[in-house]
Design a protein that fits this description.
The complex is a heterodimer of chains A (about 290) and B (about 750). By secondary structure, chain A is an alpha+beta fold. Chain A folds into two domains: about 180 residues, Uridine Diphospho-n-acetylenolpyruvylglucosamine Reductase, domain 3 (2-Layer Sandwich); about 110 residues, CO dehydrogenase flavoprotein, C-terminal domain (Enolase-like, domain 1, 2-Layer Sandwich), CATH 3.30.390.50. In chain A, about 35% of the residues lie in helices and about 25% in strands. Chain A has twelve helices and 14 strands. Chain A has a five-stranded antiparallel β-sheet. Chain A has a four-stranded antiparallel β-sheet with strand order 11-12-13-14, with helices on both faces. A three-stranded parallel β-sheet of chain A has the order 1-3-2, with helices on one face. In chain A, helix 10 packs antiparallel against helix 11 and helix 11 crosses helix 12. By secondary structure, chain B is α+β, with helices and mostly antiparallel strands. Chain B folds into three domains: about 180 residues, Aldehyde Oxidoreductase, domain 3 (Alpha-Beta Complex); about 325 residues, Aldehyde Oxidoreductase, domain 4, CATH 3.30.365.10; about 140 residues, Aldehyde Oxidoreductase, domain 4. Chain B is about 30% helix and about 25% strand. Chain B contains 19 helices and 27 strands. In chain B, the strands form six sheets. In chain B, strands 3-5-1-12-9-10-11-20 form an eight-stranded mixed β-sheet, sandwiched between helices. In chain B, strands 7-15-14-13-8 form a five-stranded mixed β-sheet, sandwiched between helices. In chain B, strands 16-25-26-27 form a four-stranded mixed β-sheet, sandwiched between helices. In chain B, strand 14, helix 9 and strand 15 form a beta-alpha-beta unit. Chain B is globular and about 90 Å long. The termini of chain B are far apart. The chains are: A alpha+beta (about 290), B alpha+beta (about 750). At the A-B interface, helix 12 of A face helix 3 and helix 19 of B.
């Protein structure tokens, strides 16, 4: 039993926006895999809910010209199984496959994973590498947000009160030739949240790194990209010396903290090991990549 | 035809997978109320004031009780049989509710309401103010001179301190030794994490008769303790145990039964249930005792052990529960492993302001085995000797005499088990192959071994009962006092009875619910005891049962009794072929013959005075990812000597489950506290119990050394599987990395500290 006061089911994104406007105390619930945990602990902020769970309008994956559109309401399982995701942005599906266990993956959504602002979200690092636009609907209409800067603090995002994140738009032209991969480091191989998450995206040209994207979760108060490490990689062959420079520069990009879950020193060791492995794996993928 | 050594499906398999098996919470009771306990948010202190008015005023709340409302009497909670000797009884140090809170999650009040949510919200409205006292969390602070007393009756917070020495003067042997190795070791506080949380409900069905339905391993003991806690005659209490979703020792403790009985008693017999949340199971049921150990091993230069010198500190937490019995039991079971060496065992059990520790699968043996086995590995390294060879040289052999009780060990299969395991994992070749690795990914092999007992004798009485009833249709009902808690006991008991009677297994119906008003007496599921202790009761009941059947058959047929026997469920003549009666024919006669016979029932109880040791060993291969500080177990074998195996499939399942728990203890699980004693990880997300992806294929084998002292040649199996995986993993990590870790769990965070220190 949950200490729930009101649950209003929205039949469209527009209705969800309207319900949120009419009931400013209400919060959105989609898969419920975070909200119900909070409610179980009597978190009073979640007693009034607007339900967008299973809303058909936000369960899509389709091509629109050079863009791949992914609905925020896709569950992790649906994202994993999407042929378009597999073809164009496989790293997102791979990251979804690391989330918790089958029950959670059948309920939790990609949109919720980003919108709740969790610093450990498994889709956050691949999203930072894939750089989609975030499609948002609110009382003042629709707008597009960049994934960069979307996470503003632990559990905080750039959505305004009353706004609904309803999808992601990936620019496939910019992703052409990008090899990308994700590694979730957790204390268990499944049924866990990330101690550190690391995604890398690499484009190679003429034996040197033409583009490098390195993203981390739980390495700072929000999911981050690593501009210093990326700069150290650019224009270089991916050899041991470059890797050394990348890892040295990486120290300036990260701000891991000590908590009872892990110490700062431990996290730094894991971050460096993952960054090296993911950069190398992404480069290998880039080299063998079939152009979409 | 024998039904021992074959693997029929467990009797409750279909009921469980189809959802027909009814657990405590599946038994709806008209008018059931729900109670939630108000828990202390601090680890140590005194309640200065408590305001229950806001809770009482909350709609749907029906009653609130505090420490002011409960009986004064202190009661024990350990699931041990009653002891006639007062000084050997369990420590009675608990009231139903307390104003002196001793751990985070201690119990100060209870709210009864029409539903769980209302009760939970009511509990949040009870306002208690506390005067905080220092939280004494570890050995250093709890045992410090002048430390605050957690219980009045335990000066210095020491619950008990005992020293035993067997097999020679350990001081002299240490002096005379060619080599002495030593070490300091630490094992963590963990939780059982049974799938079904602790749950009980109670109601009254007469003016002075309380019925408690509970997820318990020990219905008869729970009955006695409820009587003690409420000051009622024990037979006024009836305890029923339905299907049960795991206990692992946590439910070998009286957890909720006295409280629900108290509540229904106070509320005029209204049924009241308490079902703990997972969080409450962590903070406020029982845990495994954290052990610190300092130990020495004396040996000759040829690698012959001469003496173990073990000193252990066992942290029992806020309340005694099983208390010093944990450390003491391990001290009594360990001398069977290396019986030709002396053993001194100095054990302190102390109180601390942490969740109470109680029984947990292995009952102290995992902790003490970890310490002993780490020492043995030290010795192998010091002698530059293969660790397997060193163990083979020293382990018990059949015919050795235990230094602990000077009794002959008739069946000791540990040498055979070690030999078998080394072949199965290809020990010699791989140990050589994995020597001196340097890369980022390294592999290693480890072994560990242990001894265990078959029951608790002579620490406690060992009593079991069995009843056989011939039904009207010729099927046989078997009722035992031993409790099925998921381990497969009912199936094994039916196999024993089927074997003894020569009646097909499918003719048996086993009464799976124990009920203290009418099932035969047995003290319950613990100490790996049930098959061993029940086997003699079943054998005796079967003799009487068969005798009554043949008596009636002789009377009705005129065939001499001695010329007949039971065969495959029929009463046959001396040729073994001619069917005099089918069991169904005879059953109908027994009930409905106008003049002769009576329903055939036989019951026997048996007190066991034998407690033969069992043995096991674990072999593992690990892979260590050095940069990521992660250990993965790639292969794991448990080899057991538990005598004859009744049902190999069920036995393997029990071994696999134990290995999983053991690997969890080795690599994943620990309850973490902050500096004020609050439990940080009281849920299955933050408490890293391994899931299926974290375990390798678990393999096992049995060397069946038949014990001549049991009618079926069986010994115990339940707990030992989890004892040896942890030291085997620790030894394998040492082999793989050259880094010796003297504590568990070897989580990435633990290994990180050791690798950094080693510059790796």
């Amino acid at each position: 039993m949950f200490d729930l006061r009101e649950l209003r089911r929205a039949r469209s994104v527009a209705e969800a926006v309207q319900l949120l406007a009419d009931h400013p105390e209400a919060r959105l619930i989609a898969g419920g895999t975070d909200v119900l945990v909070k409610l179980r602990h009597f978190d009073g902020q979640f007693r009034h809910l607007v339900d967008i769970h299973n809303l058909p309008e936000i369960k899509f994956a389709r091509l629109e010209g050079d863009r791949l559109m992914v609905g925020a309401g896709l569950t992790f399982a649906e994202t994993i199984d999407s042929p378009l995701v597999k073809e164009y942005i496989p790293v997102l599906g791979e990251a979804c496959a690391t989330v918790a266990g089958p029950q959670i993956r059948n309920m939790g959504t990609v949109g919720g994973n980003i919108a709740n602002g969790a610093v450990s979200a498994d889709t956050a690092a691949p999203m930072l590498v894939l750089e989609p636009e975030l499609l948002v609907s609110g009382p003042e209409g629709r707008r597009h947000l960049s994934i960069h800067g979307f996470h503003t603090g632990p559990g905080q995002v750039a959505l305004k009160r009353g706004e609904v994140l309803f999808g992601f738009s990936f620019d496939l032209k910019k992703l052409a030739g990008l090899g990308a991969c994700y590694y979730k480091y957790a204390m268990r191989s499944a049924m866990d949240i990330a101690t550190i998450g690391c995604a890398a995206g690499v484009k190679m040209e003429g034996g040197v790194i033409k583009e490098a994207r390195l993203a981390l979760t739980v390495a700072a108060p929000t999911p981050i990209r690593c501009p210093g490490a990326e700069a150290a990689a650019l224009g270089r062959p991916l050899n041991d010396e470059t890797m050394k420079n990348i890892l040295a520069a990486l120290e300036g990009d990260i701000k891991p903290r000590t908590s009872w879950r892990a110490t700062r020193e431990f996290r730094v060791r894991i971050i460096k090991a993952l960054a090296e492995r993911m950069m190398r794996a992404a480069a290998e993928r880039a080299a063998g990549r079939v152009q979409p | 035809m024998t039904t021992i050594g074959i693997s029929p499906n467990r009797l409750d398999a279909a009921a469980k997978v189809s959802g027909k098996a009814r657990y405590t919470e599946d038994l709806p009771m008209a008018g059931l109320r729900h109670a939630v306990i108000v828990r202390s948010p601090i680890a140590h202190g005194l309640v200065k004031s408590i305001d229950i008015r806001p809770a009482l005023d909350f709609p749907g709340v029906e009653a609130v009780f505090t420490y002011e409302d409960v009986p004064e009497a202190l009661y024990p909670t350990a699931g041990h049989p009653y002891n006639l000797l007062a000084e050997r009884r369990d420590v009675a140090d608990r009231r139903l509710l307390t104003s002196h809170v001793r751990h985070f999650g201690d119990e100060v009040a209870v709210v009864v309401a029409r539903d769980v949510l209302t009760a939970a919200k009511g509990a949040r409205l009870v306002k208690a103010e506390y005067e905080e006292m220092p939280a004494l969390l570890d050995r250093e602070s709890a045992l410090a001179p002048g430390a605050a007393l957690i219980h009045e009756h335990a000066p210095g917070n020491v619950l008990r301190h005992t020293v035993s020495e067997h097999g020679g003067s350990v001081d002299e042997l240490l002096k005379k030794a060619d080599l002495v190795v030593e070490g300091r070791y630490k094992t963590p506080m963990v939780q059982h994490c049974h799938m079904e949380t602790a749950v009980s409900y109670a109601y009254m069905d007469d003016e002075d008769h309380i019925v408690v339905v509970s997820s318990t391993q020990i219905p008869q003991i729970a009955r006695r303790v409820v009587g003690q806690a409420l000051g009622l005659p024990w037979s006024r209490i009836r305890v029923i145990k339905p299907y049960l979703g795991g206990g692992f020792g946590n439910k070998q403790d009286v957890l909720l039964e006295p409280m629900v009985a108290f509540l229904t008693w106070k509320l005029g017999g209204v049924p009241v249930q308490i079902a703990l949340t997972r969080e409450e199971c962590f903070t406020s049921t029982r845990t495994r005792h954290q052990f610190d150990g300092e130990a020495k091993l004396a040996l000759t230069r040829d690698g012959v052990f001469t003496a173990f010198d073990l000193k252990v500190w066992s942290r029992t937490g806020a309340y005694a529960s099983h208390g010093h019995s944990i450390a003491a039991a391990a001290g009594s079971k360990s001398p069977y492993l290396y019986p030709r060496a002396a053993l001194r065992y100095d054990a302190v059990t102390y109180y601390a302001n942490v969740p109470s520790a109680g029984a947990m699968r292995g009952y102290g043996q995992p902790q003490v085995t970890f310490i002993m086995d780490c020492l043995v590995e030290e010795a192998a390294q010091a002698l530059a000797m293969d660790p397997l060879e060193l163990r083979l040289k020293n382990v018990a052999r059949s015919g050795d005499v235990s230094p602990y009780n000077n009794q002959t060990i008739y069946a000791a299969g540990i040498y055979e088990a070690l030999t078998r395991g080394s072949e199965l994992i290809d020990w010699r070749r791989k140990r050589e192959f994995y020597k001196n690795q340097t890369g980022p990914i390294r592999r290693g092999l480890g072994v560990a071994c242990c001894s265990y007992g078959s029951n608790t004798y002579p620490a406690a009485v060992e009593l079991a009962g069995a009843r056989l009833i011939l039904n009207q249709d010729g099927r046989v009902t078997l009722a035992v006092g031993a409790t099925e808690i998921g381990q497969g006991a009912d199936t094994a008991m039916a196999q024993l009875a089927s074997h003894a009677l020569d009646v097909p297994l499918e003719s048996f119906h086993v009464v799976t619910n124990q009920d203290t008003d009418h099932t035969p007496f047995d003290t319950g599921a613990y100490a790996s005891r049930q098959c061993y202790t029940s086997s003699s009761a079943i054998a005796a009941a079967a003799r009487e049962f068969a005798g009554k059947i043949l008596d009636l058959a002789a009377l009705l047929s005129g065939v001499p009794r001695d010329a007949m026997r039971l065969k495959d469920g029929n009463i046959v003549g001396s040729d073994g072929e001619h069917v005099v009666f089918t069991l169904a024919e005879l059953a109908l006669q027994s009930y409905y013959h106008l003049d002769h016979g009576a329903p055939i029932v036989a019951e026997a109880a048996h007190k066991t005075r034998l407690n033969p040791p069992v043995y096991c060993c674990t072999f593992v291969e690990v892979e260590v990812d050095m940069p990521l500080c992660r250990v993965a177990v790639k292969e794991a074998w448990n080899i057991h000597d538990s005598g004859r195996i009744i049902n190999p499939k069920l036995a393997s399942g029990q071994v696999h489950g134990g290995m999983g728990m053991g690997l969890g203890w080795a690599l994943y699980e620990e309850m973490l506290l902050d500096e004020k004693g609050r439990v940080l990880n009281d849920n299955l997300l933050d408490y890293k119990m391994p899931a299926i992806m974290d375990l390798p294929d678990l393999d096992c084998a049995f060397v069946e050394i038949i014990d001549p002292t049991n009618p079926y040649g069986i010994r115990a199996l339940g707990e030992p599987p989890l004892v040896t995986p942890a030291p085997a993993v620790r030894n394998a990590v040492w082999h793989a990395t050259g880094v010796k870790v003297d504590e568990i769990p070897i989580t990435p965070k633990t290994l990180f500290r050791y690798l950094e220190k080693a510059g790796l």
